[in-house]
Each structure stands twice: as C-alpha cells, then as structure tokens.
Amino acid sequence: MIDFLSHKLASRVLAATVLVVALWSPTAVTAQTCDTRPVQPHCVIQTDFRARVGNYDVTGSVFDLPIDQGFRTQLSARLLKPGGKEDAVPGPPRSGWHAPGAGPSPSDVLRVYCRRDDYAFLPPQSVGGLPCDQPTRGNARDPRTVAEAMWDQLPLPVLRLGMNPQPGLVAVPTWFWADGYDGDLLPLADTLLLPNEVCRQTVDRDARGDVVLDGLGHPSTHRECQTVWDSLSVEVVAWPDTYVWDFGDRQTTPIACQAVAACPGGLGRPYTDPRSPSPIAHAYTWTSLGQSGPLDAYTVTLSIHFLAHYRFSLNGQSLSGWQPLRPRELAVSASHQVREAQAVLTKP
C-alpha cells in the first residue's frame, strides 16, 4: 500500500511541477534531482514519460527512494521553435510511457493538484489528485466606470456674470465677477451594494463520503455558487484648474490655480463700493457700436476648466490612490455695452 501511494504521489507531484515549468519557463529548463550519480538500490526510476504540453516538449522521471526518504524527480521542458523542422514536434513517446492503470496519463500532466497527501484519501483506482480550485467571482463592476458616470452626471455650478459700470465707458475699467460659485472643491461620493456570484468546484462524494471518480479515474467535481454582497465606495473630487475671461474685443485674461484646492481668485469680486475693486477688470478702447449685430454689445465669456480625480474602496478596504478623470469645461456669457463719453465745452 505504501509503494502504491508513493507511486501515485510521485506521479501527481511530477504532473503539477511539469505544468508549472511548461507554462512559465521561457527557455529550456532542467531540474536535476535524486543525485548527479544515483546509486541504483537507493534511486530507481519509477516512472518515465514524455508529453507535448502547449509549445513545450516535456520529459520527466521519478526516482523512488527508500520509504524514509520519499522520492525525487528529474524534469525537462524544451520550448519548441515555431516553424522549425526536426525539433519543432516532439518525438514519439518512449515505450511504456502510458498504459491504462500504469503510470500517469497525458491528462495528468495538464492538471494541477493542491496537496501532496490527498492520494491517501482517494479510491485506489484513481489516477489524479484533488484539483486545485480558487473561487471565481462574477458581475464585477469597474470602479472607474462608476466614477466616470458620477463625474459626468455631477451638475456644474450655474453662473451669472456681473459688471460695473453697466453700460461701460471707453477707457474706464469695467469690473467683472461671477455669481453662483465660490471656487471651492466639488466633492461627490456614492456607495453601491453589488450582488456577486462566487463559484467554486466541489468534489463529489458518495453516501459514505468517499470521493467519486469520473470515467478517466479523476475525482468528479461539480460547480457550487452563492451570492455575496460587496460594498463599493467611490469618491470623486473636482476643482477649478484654470479661469479664462474673454472680454469680446480679442482681449483675454487667464487665471491659473495652483493645486487641488479652492481657487476663488478667477471669479472676481461683486461690486459693493468704489473702494473695493474686482481683481477682474478691463478697459475698452472702442465702443461696442456694431458689435454682435443689433445688440451693439461685446460678448463677455468666462470659461472654467475643471479637473477631477477619484478613488475607491471595496468592503471598507481602500484599493487605490487618487486616479485622474477626464476634464470638463464650463462657460457662461453675457452682453456688455460700451459707450464713449466726450467732453463738451460750454460758455461760462
């Protein structure tokens, strides 16, 4: 019984190791084990096989050691050259490579096993161990997609432009400002409860609790799923990056903000008294006569360039730092008439 278990354990570990080498090794890899000069009584080839796994020609041997020393393996995986000739296809298996009930089958090489001792708990006729399995999740939501939707739906401030004097005068600075926004950050947060189907492969068992084998001698499994709820929290923060005032006479004033912070300086100051001027001021050289068609007014426009970023957490655990989102623009316009005042000499 111990020799049988040792044979099965060696076959399963060899299959798992060959799979790892075949999948990940970029070049030919050889792992020398047992000993560089094996002594026959203590190092006897138990299994010798060759197989084609993907683009690799895989060969391997298992050396059965005394019972107190276990076993060792010698593995080799040769990467086949696409379009090659004599070495593009592995040669035929050596005699005794596989027969029903004798040694590992080709399907064993393609399977990964989770435990080295699971053979002791399987029926004697099994030719494979318990398969590795990781739970798989479905219905995942991309946090960036959620953040982009939040940012796109966030209403930007509703602005109204003010100016003084109104109407303006040539060569007299007009003070401008915007009502409806104070230049502060625009935060937004949302938490979504997402149903998620978590599935795993479970070994089939009979009425006694023994593992059921399929037609190939491998443990039979079935898929089990359950619904769990994930809490996805997404934060979005937007801020003004640049203000641009266009006064309608081909003159502009840009105001840049320095960081992710409130930036009220580009909005001007509402008129309260002559001693408190707005930082946004412009003196016109010409009247607005003939501007904007019948309106006879300049079109004054304030544009605000908003930047935004987001971060998210899943079930209370932060999973990202701040990530950028695409910028958005806000623009508001108003008409401003500018007249010319002329001095008139009168007789004293």
Task: Describe this protein's structure.
With 348 residues, this protein is mainly β. It contains three helices and 16 strands. It has helices at residues 2-24, 106-109, 143-153, and strands spanning 29-31, 44-53, 56-64, 71-79, 136-137, 160-164, 168-169, 174-179, 186-203, 221-246, 252-256, 281-282, 298-314, 317-318, 323-336, 338-339. The N and C termini lie far apart (133 Å).
Give structural attributes.
348 residues, mainly beta, Immunoglobulin-like, four-stranded antiparallel beta sheet, 11% helix, 38% strand, disordered N terminus
Structural class: mainly beta
Which architecture of the largest domain does the CATH hierarchy give at level 2? Answer: Sandwich
The CATH topology of the largest domain corresponds to Immunoglobulin-like
**H/E element order:** HEEEEHEHEEEEEEEEEEE
Query: How many helices?
Result: 3
Q: Enumerate the spans where pLDDT stays under 50 for 5 or more consecutive residues.
A: 1-42, 84-117
Major sheet: 7 strands, antiparallel
Mean pLDDT, as a whole number? 75
User: According to CATH, what is the class of the largest domain?
Assistant: Mainly Beta
Q: How many E strands?
A: 16
Whole-Å distance between the termini? 133 Å
Task: Report the sheet-strand fraction.
Answer: 35-45%
Morphology: rod-shaped
Looking at CATH, the homologous superfamily of the largest domain is Immunoglobulins
C-alpha Rg, in Å? 39 Å
Indicate how many domains the architecture comprises: 3
